[in-house]
Write a structure and sequence with these properties.
This protein is α+β, with helices and mostly antiparallel strands. 46% of the residues lie in helices and 18% in strands. It is built from six helices and six strands. A hairpin with a 5-residue loop joins β4 and β5. Bound molecules: zinc ion (2 copies).
Length: 137
């Protein structure tokens, strides 16, 4: 979980005004961990009935372009969003579909793949599949 106060600072750092809407969007994404736009909209609409989907899209666009929010694309799923944090793996639960963040420096693996392939590789997103900690307990 990210401290919402940090988000406030992050927005300013990146030159975005910390509007109430942006803060609420970030707060909701932080609470959910990973969330798709429609669910985000449904959750926020309960608190702000005047909110439109277009407003969400507009805000999300600027938050993603400033890298405060990251887009996550997993096979066979809607695009989901998360607060941008340090490099990590997405561990997807085969049992319940839950997505867990596993801190991991993907740059390590990237170096190895680069060496082995001799290719110009600049980014690496890793997804692992198995059982999440909720289902293990
Ligand atoms: Zn699970
Ligand atoms: Zn994540």
């Amino acid at each position: 979980m990210t401290n919402i106060l940090n988000i406030d600072n992050k927005l300013r750092e990146k030159g975005l005004r910390a509007t109430a809407q942006r803060l609420m969007i970030c707060k909701e994404i932080d609470k959910a961990g990973h969330i798709d736009i429609e669910t985000l909209y449904e959750n926020l609409k309960a608190d702000i009935p005047s909110l439109s989907l277009a407003t969400i899209y507009k805000n999300m666009h600027s938050l993603v372009s400033k890298e405060i929010i990251s887009e996550v694309n997993l096979k066979g799923r809607k695009t989901i969003y998360e607060i941008t944090i340090d490099s990590h793996i997405h561990h997807v639960c085969k049992n319940c579909g839950n997505i867990e963040d596993v801190p991991f420096d993907t740059m390590q693996i990237l170096g190895t793949i680069k060496e082995l392939s001799g290719k110009d590789i600049q980014d690496c997103k890793l997804t692992t599949y198995g059982i999440c900690s909720k289902c293990t307990n």
